[in-house]
Amino acid sequence: MADDIETETLVTISNGKSKSNYWIINTLESRSFSWILIDQSNPWKSALSWLIFFIFSICVPILAHIVYQCNTCDYSHRRPFDLIVQLSLSICSTLSFISLSAFARKYGLRRFLFLDKLSDVSLKVRDAYSHQLHRSMKLLCSFIIPCFLADSAYKIWWFSSGGKQIPYIYNIYISHTLACTLLLSSWLYRTSLFYLVCVLFKLTCSLQILRLDDFAKVFERKADVGLILMEHLAIRRTLRIISHRFRAFILSTLILVTVSQFASLLVTTETGSLVNLSTAGELALCSVTLVSGLFICLRSAAKITHKAQAVTSLAAKWHTCATIDSFDDVGPTEDTPVANVSDRANYNFNAHMDSDMDEGDEDEIDNTKMLPIYRDTISYQKRQALVSYFENNRAGITVFGFMLDRTSLHTIFVIEMSLTLWLLNKTIGFS
User: Fold this and answer.
1) Does the keyword Repeat apply (predicted)?
2) Torsion of Cα atoms, 88 then 89 then 92 then 96, to 10°
3) Which of 172, 155, 154 is nearest to 163 (CA)?
4) pTM of the prediction?
5) Alpha-carbon distance 320 to 140, whole Å?
């Protein structure tokens, strides 16, 4: 009962827009789409999800590879790279399905997307996050639909132009139509699973980017150091939660995509390999699908890590400005004009030192001069401690302790490029 009340509150929390703000979540949680999101709410639905996964990710690809190997077909209809395509998509979809199953069973969609934490953020962040939900669904469709249309065009051409040289059962038209439909459904299911996890990761990172943008505005005013620290600790804890949820998926995807691309490069560059649009078109489409999904994950991780680490320089700038302003507040004496801020700071320091040597009213003068200095010194120490905390506690997305920032992406690119050149040297050779 409490969960239902909390859900209704989350949906109606922003600007009185009722359920229109998160209608996408309501749609994806409906019965029509629950099989896509791996519904684990009861044993029957869980069994149905696993059955659909087993059919489209395991059975159909295996049968298609065995039946439609087509070694006796003409050169245009042979499928020499089908094994790499089917293995790559099936392994990535299996990894995605297992990740989604664990997320759905442990958290649920709303809690997984941190909708239960929106009551702790500002109205501006809630509205922007609602907009990000819509953009993420558009991004998901913009990747899936073109890939599906391209694969549909290829398979329709392959079955329609292949004729009787492609194996069929009883009736060639019915057999080819059913086989083409099953293969397209399998492709759509596997790519949707993979892209869905990548887009969900991007969406969770988007919320934290919005929180960091809102958090950065506290440095525009003289905010309490303790409140700044508490807010940053909350954001850092959320980033650590996201890292723990996705670290196995990101690392496994990086390894699988790398192996898949090197295997594709090896078989297409070997001597005597038949490479053209009809034989290698599906392999190229599979490579684009996997690389683009990995790119979404790595770019989102690097973006939020860069945003989180930029807080350190912002805090240092805030600390510097606040320190200068604190000396300005002390002010010069009426008898001595001061040219600039540094002169005022030096004047106050020298005046205090001279007063120590005076014999009359020493305590009264010390009390007058030291109270604002003491107050600003305590404030300075608090700000310095906060800056030191930022410098020694870098926030961001990590994968088993390794920070995914721009330096890490450069390192990954250099390693991949080195391996690619080494492989090309072994297969093609450079003089």
Assistant:
1) no
2) -170
3) 172
4) 0.79
5) 44
